[in-house]
Amino acid sequence: MKRPIGVFDSGVGGLTVVKELMRLLPNENIIYFGDTARVPYGIKSKETIVKFSLENILFLLKQEVKTIVIACNTSSSTALPLLKRHFKIPIIGVIGPGVKEAIYATRNKRIGVIATKATINSHAYERQIKRLNPKIKVFNQACPLLVPLAEEGWARRKETRDIANFYLKPMKKSGIDTLILGCTHYPLLKEVLRRVLGNSVRLIDSARQVAYETKEILASEGLLNNKKKQGKYIFYVSDELQQFKKLAKNFLGKDIENLKKVNNV
Amino acid sequence: MKRPIGVFDSGVGGLTVVKELMRLLPNENIIYFGDTARVPYGIKSKETIVKFSLENILFLLKQEVKTIVIACNTSSSTALPLLKRHFKIPIIGVIGPGVKEAIYATRNKRIGVIATKATINSHAYERQIKRLNPKIKVFNQACPLLVPLAEEGWARRKETRDIANFYLKPMKKSGIDTLILGCTHYPLLKEVLRRVLGNSVRLIDSARQVAYETKEILASEGLLNNKKKQGKYIFYVSDELQQFKKLAKNFLGKDIENLKKVNNV
C-alpha cells in the first residue's frame, strides 16, 4: 500500500526513528511531524501531552497515513494507551520495543531507565518490564537537563559529562548492566553516557527495534508497500524551518529536504 | 479604576515582575497568565512568539484588564513593537525599563546583555541602548542553558557555575561594569552570576523598573486604582497547577493562591 507511514515527535529527536525506518523499509513513504512550536513535552503534564499528541495524530490522519509511529518517549509513555483506544489504525510507540530489547540484553536482571520527568512519572517502562519479567529490578532517573544539553550540541563538553555523572551516580552504584535511553535525544549523548557508565553497561536505543516492529505490523496487516521505488519523505514542523534543518542533520545523519511549516497546532 | 493589570509570561519567570507590582501598587488587582503548556518561548521563532503573545493578550483582554505588562523578555523583544501597533490599551514590556536602569548604572559605558536566543537575535536591547546613548558598547551573549538550570533549582550547583562561567568568560574579558539580566529566570541565578563576574559588575534585573513604569503609565492615563483595599490576584496557567505552584514560590517569594488552569491556548 502506497500510503505513507506517519511519524511524530515533540521536536527533532524522533528523526532517529525515521533514520531506522528509512534503512529497514526503503520503499515506504514517510510523513514526519515535529511539534517544534510547543517543544518540549517532557516537562509538561499528562493532560497537556495527551492533548498535543491527539492533535498531532489528527494532523497525520489528514495526510492519509496508514499507520502512526509515536517517536517520542514522553508521548508514548503518557498518551499512547489512551490514544490506542480511540483510533482504528495501528499506533506504534517506542516504549514496548525498547523494553523488549533491554530484557533481551540484560544478564543480571538490573535495568536502568533514563528519561524526561513525564516519562519517569508515568512508570510506563517499569510497568512494561515487570509485566514481561517480574524478577527484573528497574532503576529510574529523570534527567531533565540532558535534552537542552543535546539540543545545544554540548555532547562533548565537560559540563555535560559532569551533569550526566550526577544523574547516573546512583544507577552506577546499583549495578545495572543495561540502560534504556528513554528519550529520542539521548542517542546523541551515547559517547558521554558510555564514558560515565563504562563499557560493561549496554545502552539501549529503541529506534531500530521500533522500525522492526513497524515492519512486522505493516506486514501482518497487509499494509507494506510492495512498489520497488525509493520512498518519498515529507517533513512538517510547527515552528520555523532553519533551526530544525540545522539540528536534523545530527539526528538523521544527512541533510533534510522537503521541509514545510504548518500552522494548524 | 478597579479593572486589573494583566501580566503574561511564557511560564513562571514573570512572577518576579508581579512581585514588584504587588509591592509598588498594593491596591491594584492583578491577573497573571503563564503559558506553561508552550513554554519556553526563547528557543522559538519570531513568528511563533508573535502568535503566542497575541493569543495571550486576547485572553487577558477578555478578563477586562486595563493595561498589559509583558513580563517576558523574549516576547517583549520580539513581539512588542508589532503588538503595540494593534492594540489601544497600554502595553508595557521589560526591555525599555531594563535599558534605562542599565544606562543609569554604567560608569564605563560597557554594558553586557545575557538572554535567550530569541531575545539576543532580536537585537532589541542593543538597539534601545544605542538609541539612548550611541557611545555605549554592548556585549551580547545568548545563554540557553540557564533557563532549564534555574527551573531545575540548580542555582547553587557547581555545574551551573561552570556553565555560567563558560557563557560569561568573553564578557568578563570585555570589561563590562553592568550586566542586564535579559530573562525573568535569571534573577534566581544572581548569586552564581555575581560569583562568576565579581562584585564590581552591577546586575540589572528590570522587574522593579517595570513596576515603576507601569505606575507612571497608569497615573498618566488616569487608570490608577484609588480604592484603599488590598488588591486581588488571580493566576492562570495553560498547563497543570502543581508544578507551577512549586516553582512560583521561588519567584514570588510566597505561596500562590487563586491559581486556575485555562484550555484556550
Overview of this protein structure:
2 copies of one chain form a homodimer. With 265 residues, chain A is of the alpha/beta class. The first copy, chain A, has 2 domains: 5-93 and 208-261, 3-Layer(aba) Sandwich (Rossmann fold), CATH 3.40.50.1860; 95-206, Rossmann fold (3-Layer(aba) Sandwich), CATH 3.40.50. In chain A, 46% of the residues lie in helices and 17% in strands. The first copy, chain A, has 12 helices and 10 strands. Chain A has helices spanning 15-24, 46-62, 73-78, 80-86, 95-105, 117-122, 124-132, 146-151, 158-173, 190-197, 207-220, 241-252, and strands spanning 5-9, 30-34, 67-70, 91-92, 110-115, 137-142, 178-182, 202-204, 233-237, 259-261. In chain A, the strands form 2 sheets. Chain A has a 6-stranded parallel sheet, with helices on both faces. In chain A, α1 (15-24) packs across α11 and α9 (158-173) packs across α10. Chain A is globular and about 50 Å long. The two termini of chain A are 28 Å apart. The model of chain A has no long low-confidence stretch (mean pLDDT 96). Chain A binds chain B through residues 36-39, 43-45, 47-48, 144-145, 148-149, 151-152, 154, 158-159, 162-163, 166, 238-240, 243, and chain B through 36-39, 43-45, 47-48, 144-145, 148-149, 151-152, 154, 158-159, 162-163, 166, 238-240, 243.
